[in-house]
Amino acid sequence: MPTGAYRELEHRWRALAQGDFIGLREVRCGSTDSTLLCAEIGDPYLPAVAIAAGVHGDEPAGPWALLELAESGELDTRCSYRLWPCVNPSGYAGGTRCNAHGVDINRTFARDGSSPEASAMLAANHGMNFELSLDLHEDSDAQGFYCYEYGGGEIGRRVTEALAGEGFPIDPLDVTFGLAGPLDDAHCVREPGRIVADVLKEALLLGGLSYSLAIARRAARHALTFETPTGAAWETRLKMHRLAVRSAVAAVLEESTSTPCN
After folding, report:
1. CB atoms within 10 A of CB 192
2. What are phi and psi of 24, to 5 degrees?
3. Which among 115, 112, 85 has a CA at the least distance from the CA of 102?
4. Residue 254's pLDDT band (boundaries 50, 70, 90)?
5. Which of 211, 194, 221 is nearest to 49 (CA)?
6. What is the mean predicted confidence (pLDDT) over 94-121?
7. pTM
C-alpha cells in the first residue's frame, strides 16, 4: 500500500497523459512554488463530472482509486471529467491530514479560498458547472462505506445499493456518525451509508467550507463525498471507491437531460 508516494502517483499520471485521451496540466497554488495536477478527459460539451481526491494526505485510497479509474478506462465516455488527482500533495507525501503548513485544506474553500490549494482549485473551476462532483475520502472510524450527499436526488442511495450488492460493508452510521463531524440529527437526515445535509447549516457547524460544500453551493447539481473505512484491506478500499464513482456517474446520467451544463 503506498503511503506518501506522491512522486510515484505523479509519475503515473504523467505517463498516462502521454496518450491522446487525457489532458494534464499543473495549476499553480497562488504565489507559492506548489502546483496541483489537473486532468481533463472527454468532450467538454458532454455532461461534466468533477472528481477530487487526496484533500487529506492520510487518506491514500482515493488518489490511487482515481488513478486506476483513469488508467483502466472505466470512466463513462458519455461524460467529460475534470479530475484533481491529489489536492494535498505535501500532506500526501508526509502521510498527514493537513498540508505542510498544518492547514486542513478541507476547511478553506470559502469565498476565493483561504489556502493556496483551495484558491487554485476554485480559480480553475471558475465559470464551470458540473452535473456531478465527487470527493474521495477515507475514515479511520468507519465500519463500512458511507457518503455525504448534497443537491437532492437519490445518487448516494444508488451508490450504497451498488456496493452492498457486491458484498462490500455499508456503515450503519450509528457509531460512526457521532465521530465523523459536527452534524447531528437536527441538521441532517441519515440512513445506513448515507448522510443528507443542508449545505448552509453544515457550513455553519463546520466553521468553514469543505470542497464538496463549496462546489455544491456554486457549481455542481449534485455533490457527494465518499468515505471508505481505512480498517479495510487496501484493495477493498480501492474497489469500493471505483465502484462508487462508476455507480454515481451512471445514476446521474440516468437522471440528467441531454442538455450540456458547461
Report:
1. 14
2. -130, 130
3. 115
4. very high
5. 221
6. 95
7. 0.95
pLDDT of 149 over the 70 cut: yes
Contact 220, 151 (CB under 8 A): yes
Identify whether the C-beta of residue 105 lies closer than 8 Å to the C-beta of residue 98. yes
Name the domain count of the chain: 1
Quote the domain boundaries for residue 134. Answer: 6-255
Domain annotation covers residue 23: yes
Assign 3-class secondary structure to the chain.
CCCCCHHHHHHHHHHHCCCCCEEEEEEECCCCCCEEEEEEECCCCCCEEEEEECCCCCCCHHHHHHHHHHHHCCCCCCCEEEEECCCCHHHHHHCCCCCCCCCCHHHECCCCCCCHHHHHHHHHHCCCCEEEEEEEEEECCCCCEEEEEECCCCHHHHHHHHHHHCCCCECCCCCHHHHHCCCCCCCEEEECCEEEECHHHHHHHHCCECHHHHHHHHCEEEEEEEEEECCCCHHHHHHHHHHHHHHHHHHHHHHCCCCCCC
Residue 261 lies in a domain: no
CATH number of the domain within which 189 lies: 3.40.630.10
CA–CA separation, 97 and 139 (whole Å): 11
pLDDT of 68 over the 60 cut: yes
Angle subtended at Cα 74 by Cα 135 and Cα 118, rounded to the nearest 5 degrees: 25
Q: Is residue 76 part of a domain?
A: yes
